[in-house]
Specification:
It comes from Actibacterium mucosum KCTC 23349. Pfam families: Hydrolase. InterPro entries: HAD-like_hydrolase_sf, HAD-like_sf, HAD-SF_hydro_IA, HAD_sf, PGP-like_dom2. With 217 residues, the protein is α/β, with parallel strands linked by helices. Helices cover 41% and strands 13% of the residues. The strands form two sheets. The chain has a six-stranded parallel β-sheet, sandwiched between helices. Helix 8 (168-177) links the parallel strand 6 and strand 7 (181-184).
Length: 217
């Protein structure tokens, strides 16, 4: 079965404001900007905490990050969908793929429990046949294993699949799995993701079906 696997943060939904709010709660004063640091938010909790503690001039940044990582996750879980929104056209695009016989899955470096909660809160969990998170397997993206698991759990076939993402992590994951990758241009890096040389760029979800139909046999 033809399968489309999506990253979550920065690809299906703009989660940056809620992520940054949870990270800022870990500092004595807000250190991260919801707009300027959105790209860092999409690289994960530790990346945000590291940037914030570096700006604070913490004497041991690595230790501070580890000390605040689980409190960050707890704060984020409590306020996971305050500002988060799906990107325009997401629901209609995924619904069309499924209507045309595609399997769909999520492969994210967000912890699986948080990803499940967020998709349920946004009322779109039933649009995806499988969800593989950062802690589903012993490894995470860009290791190809989570991607392979997402395809398999969705009932798909690796050589008839592709990844939709937004960062170098997604590009490297697709390359490691030997599948094509499309990167969205509506994230913080905009058309700068073209420098990662994906097989395609996606400017809006209105164009998803035509792109996927062309790239997956």
């Amino acid at each position: 079965m033809r399968t489309v696997v999506f990253d979550l943060d920065g690809t299906l939904a703009d989660t940056s404001a809620d992520l940054i709010a949870a990270a800022n709660a870990c500092f004595d004063a807000p250190m991260l900007d919801p707009v300027a640091d959105a790209g860092t938010a999409f690289r994960g909790g530790r990346a945000m905490l590291k940037l914030g503690f570096e700006r604070l001039g913490a004497p041991d940044v690595a230790a501070a990050v580890e000390a605040q990582y689980h409190p960050f996750l707890d704060r984020y879980a409590d306020h996971i969908d305050v500002f988060t929104q799906l990107y325009p056209g997401t629901v209609a695009a995924v619904e069309r793929l499924r209507a045309e016989g595609y399997a769909t899955a999520i492969c994210t470096n967000k912890p699986a429990g948080l990803a499940e909660t967020l998709m349920a809160r946004l009322r779109v969990r039933d649009l995806f046949d499988a969800l593989v998170g950062a802690d589903t397997l012993p490894v995470r993206k860009p290791d190809p294993a989570p991607y392979l698991a997402a395809v398999e759990r969705a009932g798909g076939t690796l050589n008839r699949s592709m990844l939709i993402g937004d960062t170098v992590t997604d590009r490297d994951t697709a390359r490691a799995a030997g599948v094509p990758c499309a990167l969205v241009t509506f994230g913080p890096d905009g058309h700068g993701v073209a420098d990662l040389q994906p097989e395609a760029l996606l400017d809006h979800y209105d164009g998803l079906f035509a792109l996927v139909d062309q790239m997956i046999d």
